């Protein structure tokens, strides 16, 4: 068999290759330090070819389209350590643009990858600021990583569907760590790691603190608007209490619960009128009955499933309620520490800019 016939045979099989088999090949591949020669050998070893156009486009034979190599440019060079490329992104599937369809496609890919590789060592959301300052999809930016010392495999939400990204471990983690400068909105999304030995040496950036109620409104809106799509995609359930420090201690104010739907309960004191602020009861939000009992909490809203929450309105509702209760500044709106434990992962909600305690 001629060499080009062998390559064509490999490319033809790529179209039928399962996500699991692709992942195994990527994990086992020699990336050669991500140098130009190393990456060309990587592409050839995978049975793929360049398309004859720019060096960052690779023909894979997969029905979801070609792979993309990301060269080190002005946004990446500060974080690279001898690499000429910082990722190889392979589209896995295309799905309709609606959040529910995108979340379902991501979740299906994650299930197949988990069966093949085990539980990812890291999960989270890039929020609106992805690696090296990329912006993520509007519906949400979930990711799951199988971290390795040299190279990491990441399942990422792409523009048209889930993508499998092979990347040198150092540059992306260095970029993320260096965003912890304390400025408002310097880091978005959330980040969770488990006790996998692969996470030994993993660094965690510092967070930032919201300095105005407008910032809190915006950060809550961004978080809640995408949350059902992201939890559905990742297959997790978030239970997040919010406490408000007032002159009477720091009582529980809200209970945010989200799996495939977002439900928020309100525990406002008697002197506050939740109905006037926009809260309803189980009669008005029957979808919350499966989350909360019929009468506790009395006040709640049903945010809906993937793509349905009106993030800005929900952010305004929580902030208006907190202020009506007597929470005087953002530093006194506190995320309960219970929220940090999600499906075996320790999660930091960087994008909220709120204290956790």
Straight-line N-to-C gap:
65 Å
Helix content: 25-40%
Please tell me how large the radius of gyration is: 22 Å
* Major sheet attributes: 11 strands, antiparallel
Round the mean pLDDT to the nearest integer and report it: 94
Describe it for me?
- A hairpin with a 2-residue loop joins strand 15 and strand 16.
- The chain is 29% helix and 22% strand.
- By secondary structure, the chain is α+β, with helices and mostly antiparallel strands.
- The chain has an eleven-stranded antiparallel β-sheet. Strands 13-12-11-10-14-17 form a six-stranded mixed β-sheet.
- The protein contains eight helices and 17 strands.
- The longest helix is centred in the middle third of the chain and has 22 residues, at 213-234.
List the helices and strands and how they pair.
Elements: H1 3-14, H2 19-28, H3 36-45, E1 49-50, E2 57-59, E3 67-71, E4 85-91, H4 99-117, E5 122-125, E6 142-146, E7 151-157, E8 162-168, H5 169-178, E9 190-193, H6 213-234, E10 238-244, E11 252-258, E12 262-266, H7 274-277, E13 299-304, H8 311-325, E14 333-335, E15 341-342, E16 345-348, E17 355-356
Parallel strand pairs: 14-17
Antiparallel strand pairs: 1-2, 2-3, 3-4, 4-8, 5-6, 5-9, 6-7, 7-8, 9-16, 10-11, 10-14, 11-12, 12-13, 15-16
